[in-house]
Amino acid sequence: MAFQKGHKLAPGGKRKDAGRDPDWLKQQVRDIIGKDKLVQRLAQIARGDNIDQPLSNGEVVPIPAPVAEQRKAILDLLERGYGKVVQGIEHSGDVAGRIVIVRPTLGVAA
After folding, report:
1. 0.70 exceeded by the pTM?
2. Do 26 and 32 meet the contact criterion of CB atoms below 8 Å apart?
3. Other C-beta atoms lying within 10 Å of the C-beta of residue 73
4. Most buried pick, 1, 57, 67, 106, via CB within 10 A?
């Protein structure tokens, strides 16, 4: 049974303008949390500054950042500033030549 063009069961891929824009959620988050605010917040946690913790009764209590959160914030800041650490690759087979691994850089000027 053949369907006419435009029928919802007709073959040919998704409909034009169907679904949500793929970058919609990303843009919403960027609008709510600016890049500078995020980096400042990570720096605050990494330093161990007091973080405002809201309680169930609506009261806000300043508490020091836990060590685990400080460590994670420090790693996030280092990766943002210097990139992720390059991991070595071991090979235990017989290789007759040189192995070259090429990774693309994402907007990083050399």
Report:
1. no
2. no
3. 19
4. 67
